[in-house]
Amino acid sequence: MSAPLDATLVSTVDNYWATFLGCEPSALRSSTVQIAVHSGPGDHLKCHLMEFGGAPVVSLPANELALYRDAIAEWRDGVVLTSALIKAVFGERAAAILGPAFVGYTDSKRFPRIPGGKARPLIPGDRKAFDRLRTACPVEEWESGGNDFQPSSMIGVFERGRLAALASYELWDDRIAHIYIVSHPLLRGRGYAATAVSALTKIVLERGLVPQYRTLEANKPSMAVARRLGFVQYATSFAVRLSSLKSS
Fold first, then answer.
1. What's the rounded Cα separation, in Å, for the pair 53 and 78?
2. Which of 36, 106, 134, 241 would bridge with 230, disulfide CB 3.0–4.6 Å?
3. Helix, strand or coil for residue 112?
4. DSSP annotation of 80
5. CATH code (residue 213)
6. Residue pLDDT tens, the chain, 248 long
7. Do residue 40 and residue 87 come from a single domain?
8. Is-contact 79 51, C-beta < 8 A?
9. What are 124-130's contacts with CB under 8 Å, separation 24+?
10. Could you tell me if 175 and 218 lie in one domain?
11. Are 92 and 183 within one domain?
12. Could you list the residue range(s) of the whole structural domain that residue 93 is in?
């Protein structure tokens, strides 16, 4: 059995997610469903549902709490989040359900760096290669795995002058490095994504940050990258985008 994640790391991410969801850290792994209120900017029509090894934590916008609190409170001990369960609560207002998603972390003891010299930090002169990769990727793939051009926080793997894979990160709450990965549609299945994420994770750890990897569980190649690099599942998440209530 692999060693558990570093306790300091777990405390850091517990505090982050508790603040994000609007609850206390002790509520993350309760035996009963926890209902919280979040107030994130732009989240007035979004519901977040997460499981941390206990009963789900459901975070609603304040203006939606009265509508759905009773239905969610009826979920029994041992309930496992599914799209069907979520749809049963929100009905036609569930305009989009994103999940289940893997949320995982690794630390310096678990992380097995992949050997190889193909990955390198991007430099300002890589802008054209970056733009060509962005153009080659479907819009929805870039929106979930791409990022703005920021060479200081990007690692690329090149094949014959083409940017085959690009890993980058966004800093959350000054400590958590949320990792993004995107690869060229014509150059997949060659291990480039894992190589890029590995090199970036090494840098993240050297900077004293917490590497975070999130991907849909249905994305098998991305899940394979997470496992290969020692990312341990910390939580499962769903996000629900709600449609506006119709005025009567």
1. 10
2. 106
3. coil
4. -
5. 3.40.630.30
6. 456 788 999 999 999 999 999 999 999 999 999 999 987 656 678 999 999 999 999 999 999 999 999 999 999 878 889 999 999 999 999 999 999 999 999 999 999 877 766 899 999 999 999 999 999 999 999 988 999 999 988 999 999 889 999 999 999 999 999 999 999 999 998 999 999 999 999 999 999 999 999 999 999 999 999 999 999 999 999 999 999 865 44
7. yes
8. no
9. 124/151, 126/151, 126/156, 126/163, 129/156, 129/158, 129/161, 129/162, 129/163, 130/156, 130/163, 130/166
10. yes
11. no
12. 7-103+236-242
Tell the residue number behind the tokens 């900017």, with chain if given: 41
In 4-126, alpha helices (H): 7-21, 65-73, 83-90
User: Do 12 and 87 belong together in one domain?
Assistant: yes
Same domain, 93 and 129: no
Residue 109 lies in a domain: no
- The answer to whether residues 123 and 98 belong to one domain is no
In a domain, 110, yes or no: no
Residue pair 37/60 in contact by the 8 Å Cβ criterion: yes
For residue 111, being part of any structural domain is answered with no
In a domain, 151, yes or no: yes
pTM: 0.91
Question: Which residues on adjacent β-strands are paired with residue 105?
Answer: 212, 232
Q: Is 124 exposed, middle or buried (0-12, 13-18, 19+ CB in 10 A)?
A: exposed
| Same-domain check for residues 138 and 88 | no
